[in-house]
Design goal:
The protein is of the alpha/beta class and 471 residues long. It folds into two domains: 5-231 and 435-456, Aldehyde Dehydrogenase, Chain A, domain 1 (3-Layer(aba) Sandwich); 235-415, Aldehyde Dehydrogenase, Chain A, domain 2, CATH 3.40.309.10. Helices cover 38% and strands 20% of the residues. The protein has 13 helices and 19 strands. The chain has helices at residues 25-41, 44-60, 62-73, 77-102, 136-148, 161-173, 188-196, 209-218, 245-257, 277-289, 310-325, 375-382, 398-407, and strands at 5-9, 16-21, 105-106, 114-121, 124-128, 151-155, 181-183, 202-206, 226-230, 235-239, 267-273, 329-332, 347-350, 366-372, 390-394, 412-415, 427-428, 440-441, 449-456. The strands form five sheets. It has a seven-stranded mixed sheet with strand order 12-13-14-11-10-15-16, with helices on both faces. A five-stranded parallel sheet has the order 7-6-5-8-9, sandwiched between helices. It has a three-stranded antiparallel sheet with strand order 3-4-19, with no helix packed on it. α4 packs parallel to α5. The mean pLDDT is 96. The structure holds 2-aminohexanedioic acid (UN1). 2-aminohexanedioic acid (UN1) binds at residues 140, 263, 265, 420-424, 428, 440-441. This is Succinylglutamate-semialdehyde dehydrogenase.
Length: 471
């Protein structure tokens, strides 16, 4: 540990963007532990003032920050700018969430005196970030952790270390010390050591189900450690009766292919009423064929960039070929348009007749289509997954949406809206393999402070009851 070299490469060009050594976990945790008590002792108002200063620092660096995100992830500039805006918006949302989720509550108790629930920070929180939103998603954990009075160690994805480091620098510039917000670079080895470190009180994770399960397993003998897992999805879109086919296909494209499909909330399965199939496929294909794919700063601006690296591109094309050779019928083909770079074109494949569809998260622009005859079958098909993050119904009527909402197992359910782009001011998280409870967005505050029941009398006053001899 500490010897490993981390190198981040721009997906769109193959050029090296950043290199640095993996951090030392013990030293990082020790530094946080020494600094933490003074931070926790600050009044809440002071911590709020400092995170508001952070939002000014982000504002001052808006362009540079967006450019860095675009270069390091390959996402188009319009998307990178949206990500920076989400980082800024998260500040006020997190302040509100902390107040709302942890507000002091008086207990009506039969005891004399008073009783209340107050909240305390856990101590040192490890934030493990993903590469798809390397600023916005870890920030959604860093902010509530800091506001609650924790020290934070961010381990960014080893694919996006530069963005993670820049985010933390902006917190430092705002006046939060480099011991209270630290970045720890590293890969799985450092991640595992950080999670298991006895000096770390909680883990706030965003990433794949596989990595989340590994974390959960590592903490199995340590039930007191906080763990928030925001994992993946195999998210369905059900397309039902609508006169607005083209609007519907736009929503499908948006759900499946923004961020090159690298969203936990991206649509992976389109479940469509059989009678609409031909018309919808024709429009979906022609819309998808019009997608401009390119590097972040290309003109005209692309809708979609590359995926994160060649490994990811290989896995996706292999998955497409697997579906193809096991009964899938292509609507559009997934291709690699730029030699040696991880660009892939969106693949849409009809897998209705496949004997068995793999229930895994294929993290990229790959959409399976499944034809069904009636609405109950559509709901059953949508629920035919161990994941449960996001689901959308497009078309249908209010009664159908009510049935959909009531019967779909997912944390986020939408009507005539994409599966992605979930609100930061709502609870965010899934069921099943998608995560534990509501680990992100508004309810992330729940993981950052713990309620203490406090019963209070200003002076000790007591009399012993039955079972004593007279004094
Ligand atoms: C998405 O919908 O693609 O703040 C991600 C959050 C959520 C993330 C949503 N708004 O954690």
């Amino acid at each position: 540990m500490g010897e490993n070299l981390i190198i981040s490469t721009e997906p769109a060009t193959g050029e090296e963007l950043w290199r640095g050594k993996a951090g030392n976990v013990d030293e990082t945790v020790d530094r946080a532990r020494r600094a933490w008590p003074a931070w926790a002792a600050q009044p809440l108002a002071k911590r709020i003032e400092l995170v508001r200063r952070f939002s000014n620092e982000v504002l001052n660096e808006q362009d540079a920050f967006a450019q860095l995100i675009a270069r390091e992830t390959g996402k188009p500039m319009w998307e990178a700018r949206t990500e920076v805006e989400a980082v800024i918006a998260k500040v006020e949302i997190s302040i509100r969430a902390y107040a709302e989720r942890t507000g002091q509550r008086k207990l009506d108790s039969a005891l004399q005196g008073s009783a209340a629930v107050r909240h305390k920070p856990h101590g040192i929180m490890a934030v493990l970030g993903p590469y798809n939103f390397p600023a916005h998603l870890p920030n959604g954990h860093v902010l509530p952790a800091l506001i609650a009075g924790n020290a934070v160690i961010l381990k960014p994805s080893e694919k996006t270390p530069a963005t993670g480091e820049f985010l933390m620098k902006l917190f430092n510039r705002a006046g939060i010390s480099a011991a209270i917000v630290q970045v720890l670079h590293g890969g799985p080895e450092e991640g595992k050591a950080l999670v298991a470190h006895p000096g770390v009180d909680g883990v706030l994770f965003t990433g794949s189900a596989q990595a989340g399960i590994a974390i959960n397993r590592k903490l199995a003998t340590n039930p007191g450690k906080i763990v928030a897992l925001e994992m993946g999805g195999n998210n369905p879109i059900v397309l039902w009766d609508t006169p607005k086919i083209h609007d519907a296909t736009n929503l499908i494209v948006q759900s499946a292919f923004t961020t090159a499909g690298q969203r936990c909330t991206a649509a992976r399965r389109l479940i469509v009423k059989a009678s609409m199939f031909d018309e919808v496929m024709a429009d979906l294909k022609s819309t998808t064929d019009r997608i401009i794919i390119g590097a972040p700063f290309d003109e005209p601006a692309p809708f979609m960039g590359p995926v994160i690296d060649s490994n990811a591109a290989d896995q996706l094309t292999e998955a497409f070929l697997y579906l193809l050779s096991n009964g899938g019928k292509p609507i559009t083909h997934m291709r690699r348009p730029r030699k040696g770079l991880p660009f892939v074109t969106p693949g849409i494949i009809d897998t209705t007749d496949m004997a068995e569809r793999p229930d895994v998260e294929l993290f990229g622009p790959l959409l399976q289509v499944i034809r069904v005859d009636d609405f109950d079958e559509a709901i059953a098909e949508a629920n035919n997954t161990r994941f449960g993050l996001s689901a959308s119904l497009i078309g249908g009527n209010p009664q159908e949406y009510n049935r959909f909402w009531a019967n779909i197992r997912a944390g986020i359910v939408n009507w005539n809206r994409p599966t992605n782009g979930a609100s930061s001011s709502a609870p965010f998280g899934g069921v099943g393999l998608s995560g534990n409870h509501r680990p992100a967005a508004f309810y992330a505050a729940d993981y950052c402070a713990y309620p203490v029941t406090s019963t209070e009398m200003e002076q000790p006053r007591s009399s012993l009851g039955v079972g004593f001899r007279d004094a």
